[in-house]
Design goal:
Blueprint lengths: L8 H35 L4 E9 L5 E9 L9 H10 L3 H19 L10 E6 L1 H5 L5 H11 L6 E5 L8 H13 L3 E7 L5 H8 L3 E4 L1 H4 L6 H16 L3 E4 L5 H9 L4 E2 L22 E4 L2 E4 L5
Parallel strand pairs: 2-3, 3-4, 4-5, 5-6, 6-7, 7-8
Antiparallel strand pairs: 1-2, 1-8, 9-10
Helix pairs in contact: 3-5
The protein binds calcium ion.
The site of calcium ion has 4 residues, from loops.
Pfam families: EAL
Organism: Paenibacillus borealis
InterPro entries: Cyclic-di-GMP_PDE-like, EAL_dom, EAL_sf
């Protein structure tokens, strides 16, 4: 009987090293492919822009829209999250954010159904906190752009994402107050999805808290989610912060949030992201909603 051949130890190390190099090279090639695709999307303005309505839950009035920029489908970025995660890692992040802001605001104005009639509505745009903090960033640029477009800074709400990027809360609060002095407002995005949320809320004192969809999904049947919601609502009541529940997808979730006294909401049940900033509306089976302090009639004529 012959013994199976065993690779001498030295050769085995070389073989492992070559495998490692091969894996690394494939990784690098993939990364290069992603960068090329990213630059193509950025330079050729291939992001698609959507607007999702945000409603006052007691009245059904549309108070504003979140602007969402989505990349075209590609093998390099299977989801929008993959795309933004990659964008956050590149050297181009700063320029990318600036381009996105210009795109968001100019398309908002271009696609408004009737200019002037919507002059009260807010425009929520997603911003990487690192960009506001970046020395290259001049708030005057955004102000100039707004002036060009005929929008006042009071209508703009910066939604801050990726809270991990904020380390120096006191310093960052100073940066934010500079923007606030110019009229801009701040929303903390995806609140309730990460460990930093509480700290972010207390230090940054945002004008809006956007509750993460994981906290809203099926809330009418989950005691823990309800308790968290109550904590945030109580906090909001004692401060100037206002609450927006994100990811409302069913009439049951909507009714629960209305009864709990949550002021604003966003989600498929109220309006999907579409190419124009149009009004949202309640699902047709909800026309009369019980709210804290009694019943309130809500017009379904919208
Ligand atoms: Ca957002």
């Amino acid at each position: 009987m012959t013994k199976p051949w065993a690779m001498p130890p030295k050769l085995s190390v070389i073989s492992q090293y070559l495998q490692h190099l091969n894996g690394r090279m494939r990784g690098e090639i993939k990364e290069l492919g992603r960068l090329t695709a990213f630059l193509d999307i950025m330079n050729n303005k291939r992001l698609d822009t959507f607007f999702q309505p945000i409603l006052q839950l007691s009245s059904g009035r549309t108070i504003g829209h979140e602007v969402l920029n989505r990349p075209p489908g590609s093998v390099h970025f299977p989801t929008t999250e993959h795309f933004y995660e990659f964008a956050g890692r590149t050297e181009q992040m700063f320029r990318f954010e600036q381009d996105c802001r210009r795109l968001s605001l100019s398309r908002y104005v271009e696609r408004l159904p009737k200019a002037g009639a919507e002059s009260e509505r807010l425009v929520f745009i997603n911003v990487h906190p690192g960009v506001l903090n970046d020395a290259r960033h001049k708030s005057g640029e955004t102000l100039g752009l707004l002036q060009e477009l005929g929008l006042s800074p009071e209508r703009i709400v910066f939604e801050l994402t990726e809270r991990q990027a904020v380390q120096d809360y006191v310093g960052f609060e100073k940066v934010l107050s500079h923007y606030r002095e110019q009229g801009f407002r701040i929303a903390v995005d995806d609140a309730g999805s990460g460990y930093n949320s509480l700290k972010t809320l207390v230090y940054l004192k945002p004008e809006f808290i956007k509750l993460d969809k994981s906290l809203i999904h099926g809330i009418q049947g989950n005691r823990e989610q309800q308790e968290l919601l109550e904590l945030v609502r109580e906090y909001a009541e004692r401060s100037p912060t206002r609450v927006i529940a994100e990811g409302i997808e069913t009439a049951g979730e909507l009714q629960f949030l209305q009864q709990a006294g949550i002021e604003f909401g966003q989600g498929y049940a109220l309006g999907r992201p579409v190419h124009r900033p149009v009004h949202g509306s309640f699902p047709s089976d909800i026309i009369k909603v019980p709210v804290r302090g009694g019943y309130k009639h809500v017009s379904s004529d919208r």
